[in-house]
Design a protein that fits this description.
Distance between the termini: 47 Å
Strand content: 5-15%
Structural class: alpha/beta
Number of strands: 13
Largest sheet: 7 strands, mixed
Strand order of the largest sheet: 2-8-7-6-5-3-4
Radius of gyration: 21 Å
Shape: globular
Order of helices and strands: HHEHHEHEHEHEHEEEHHHEEHEEEH
Low-confidence stretches: 391-398
């Protein structure tokens, strides 16, 4: 039977999160669980969104398709949004598509670009869905390792050495999932200088563009001279407006690319849900008010978790500058998958083993503080530190 399934798909590993979340749901039913596995924020979306979807639910139009790229009025709003907040000059008619989240946007961009054997540079640890996409399409992931010592900032010399005649694209996630790193603007400028003129595409996943704690929103590489024609920028409102379940985001880029992306978009999703687009039109004008409520609370959670982890010398973690993630490195050689399993079963803490996020994720865990209170985060840090200190494989006495 498997001989009739795509060999590229068969060779693609399933994300570790799938089995972990299934077991976590079982434990929730049994009692206490501190869930640091999935980054769905627990703050409600803006009231304006909720009121609008209620208001239009009876409108027959919202039960029909929109144009494939999205409602024209919403695309016009999004073009202004990305100009003001990303520095992008996106043509709302031909250079911007409303998508069901950033995941689908990035998948579609890579599917439009890659041929089997093409190489894609991705800093590691990486967001597993991007690596999975490259593998599914028959591409080759070229890993650029990072370390917590400098906030997981990729070394530009290593990026340059990863370029080969088969390099088609680089995936850049800024702020980063899973590391929490916010790449400095100067670094982004230098990366743009390295890539400009080499005809290497950038798929810029800026899902966490609004979720930064210091230094303001990061520089978008697509806004740099020479990069607009070679950058596809994906954005999402899953986290910034708490709309994960409503599935809405966008892809902005050169019209010649998006014309081809629309073929993938039409054959896979046709269009983003009409009612979600209407709701977003009501929520976008209040995004700053929403973030002013949410971000101080997320920062308090980040600080509580970092303070707790900091009490255990065996653990290493860089303070995240953006996103709701901390990547915590366990003692060298510790099996992150085995540790994660023990942490779940014995300590009732769910955390994602990062070994499946590329070679840079070995002996590390991705922790999310998106939906957990300060006290529970402090307790989770203590439980992780206690288990990590129990032996080189997390298997000694407690």
């Amino acid at each position: 039977m498997t001989r009739r399934i795509s060999p590229h798909l068969l060779a693609t590993d399933s994300p570790a999160l799938t089995a972990l979340m299934a077991r976590a749901r079982e434990l929730v039913a049994e009692g206490e669980l501190i869930n640091l596995a999935q980054a769905v924020v627990d703050f409600p979306p803006p009231l304006e969104f909720i009121e609008e979807v209620r208001r239009v639910a009876g409108d027959p139009a919202v039960h029909r398709y929109t144009p494939d790229p999205g409602l024209p009025d919403l695309r016009a709003m999004l073009a202004r949004h990305v100009a003001e907040r990303y520095g992008l000059d996106a043509d709302p008619e031909n250079g911007l598509i409303v998508t069901p989240g950033a995941n689908q946007a990035c998948f579609s961009a890579l599917a439009a670009l890659l041929e089997p054997g093409d190489e894609v540079i991705i800093p590691t640890p990486w967001y597993f869905n991007h690596a999975m996409t490259v593998q599914m399409l028959g591409g080759v992931v070229k890993a650029v390792p990072t370390s917590p010592g400098n906030g997981h900032l990729p070394d530009l010399g290593q990026v340059a050495r990863a370029v080969s005649p088969r390099t088609k694209a680089m995936v850049l996630v800024n702020p980063n999932n899973p590391t929490g790193g916010r790449y400095p603007d100067q670094w982004v400028l230098e990366l743009g200088g390295l890539l400009a003129g080499r005809r290497i595409w950038v798929v810029a996943d800026q899902t966490y563009q609004e979720m930064v704690y210091e230094g303001g929103r990061p520089l978008s590489i697509g806004s740099l001279p020479g990069m607009a024609d070679w950058t596809a920028t994906a954005g999402s409102f899953s986290k910034s407006l708490s709309l994960a379940g409503w599935r809405i985001g966008f892809l902005a880029g050169p019209p010649a690319l998006l014309e081809q992306v629309l073929k993938i978009h039409d054959s896979s999703v046709i269009s983003t849900a009409h009612i979600t687009q209407r709701g977003l039109m009501a929520a976008l004008p209040v995004i700053d008010t929403h973030l002013e409520r949410v971000m101080p609370r997320l920062k308090s959670r980040r600080d509580a978790l970092m303070a707790s982890l900091g009490g255990f010398p065996a653990l290493r973690a860089a303070t995240p500058g953006g996103s709701p993630f901390v990547l915590v490195h366990l003692p060298d050689g510790m099996d992150d998958a085995a540790f994660s399993s023990r942490l779940l079963e014995e300590e009732r803490v769910a955390a994602v083993p990062a070994g499946g996020m590329g070679p840079g994720g070995a002996s590390a865990l991705r922790l999310s503080f998106a939906a957990t209170g300060v006290e529970q985060l402090a307790e989770a840090g203590r439980r992780i530190g206690r288990l990590a200190g129990s032996g080189p494989d997390g298997g000694g006495g407690r």
